[in-house]
Amino acid sequence: MQARIVLLPGDGVGPEVVAAAAAVLERTGAQFQHRFTLEPHDIGGAALRRNLPPLPDETLQACETADAVLLGAVGDPAFDDRPPGQRPESALLQMRRHLKLFANLRPARVWRGLDGAGPLKPEVLSGTDMLVVRELTGGLYYGEPRGIEADGSAAWNTMRYSRMEIERIARVAFDAARTRRRRVTSVDKANVLETSRLWRQVVAGVAREYPDVALDHMYVDSCAMKIALAPAAFDVILTENLFGDILSDEAGAVVGSLGLLPSASVGEGPGLFEPVHGSAPDIAGRNIANPIGAVLSAAMLLRHALKLDDEAAAIEAAVAAALDAGHRTADIAAGRSAIGTREMASAIADAVVTGAVRR
Ligand code: IPM
Ligand code: MN
């Protein structure tokens, strides 16, 4: 197969982890005889530094016509004082809206050998394998009216959801549950918010189309607690935009490191694939970031955007093999010696090749 993949390295550790994921993609492509054209473009603070807007037109056009997009991270403290539309983050928000990427899939599982890497006891973590399905183009992130008084005396945002927005994300969650353990936990704040009451009602309606999938509802505060106390209890977590942002970081922490988490943002156009961890400016440029979240995002890209299931599985197996061989970046080292971003990427790429030869 031939595929055109746009790379958006962006800010902070973004360029390092995208280079790592690109190396794994290239080796996987060669191994399975595909032609992946990897095409880098500017985004976020990296674009601002070149006096371009955070999401240059040329970048957006390249993404619109690509088969898939792999992004590193956006976010740069140098631009913290700017108004919302001129910050690096606005590039991502515009892109999600423009490409109609309403569904964000964030799987979080405990990898073999990493059950002692995080804050939880191994016996609590054992069996953890959840998928956060986060609504990505609605809610407080986009609701109007929004603003801040010129004198700084008050500010406001709007939480808004339409029935249609809830229905379509609910279907994504129930469809995903059918490929997993057939359980959906819908997370809301229906004891306080009208949007949540509509959410609950619409999700319950969609659930009737999926009699083979079990549904329960949970308040977001209680869900946050249960992720910390009993993460293995969850299969698919279905939730709105801001709740999903928060709960997915928590899920990353409990499985050992946010650096392990990949994501897929899908909708009508080409999908956008990115690690959940963000730009992490404090560790940028030092070859110490964990590339696994980005590498697993590349695997999700192959599976979801290019329908290359075997190739995606080969990358996931290679991550497991690299971890089995004892390779650790600093965030998951838990006292062992750590290797760098590039070294971890080569260990994974090598394992793709040896794994494929063995098969
Ligand atoms: C994420 C990030 C983004 C979000 C930021 C960078 C806009 O935290 O993808 O989780 O809040 O959605
Ligand atoms: Mn986030």
How do the helices and strands line up, and which of them pair or pack?
Layout: E1 2-10, H1 14-31, E2 35-40, H2 45-48, H3 57-65, E3 68-73, H4 88-98, E4 103-109, H5 122-125, E5 129-135, E6 147-148, E7 155-156, H6 163-178, E8 183-188, H7 194-207, E9 214-219, H8 220-229, E10 236-239, H9 241-254, E11 264-266, E12 271-273, H10 292-305, H11 309-324, H12 341-358
Helix pairs in contact: 1-10, 1-12, 6-7, 8-9, 10-11, 11-12
Mean pLDDT: 97
- Catalogue the ligands: 3-isopropylmalic acid, manganese (II) ion
Structural class: alpha/beta
Look at the structure and name the CATH superfamily of the largest domain. Isopropylmalate Dehydrogenase
The total strand number stands at 12
Given the structure, what is the number of helices?
12
- Dominant shape: globular
Order of helices and strands: EHEHHEHEHEEEHEHEHEHEEHHH
Gap between N and C termini: 20 Å
Sheet with most strands: 10 strands, mixed
CATH architecture of the largest domain: 3-Layer(aba) Sandwich
Strand order of the largest sheet: 2-1-3-12-11-4-5-10-8-9
Uncertain ranges: none
Helix coverage percent: 40-55%
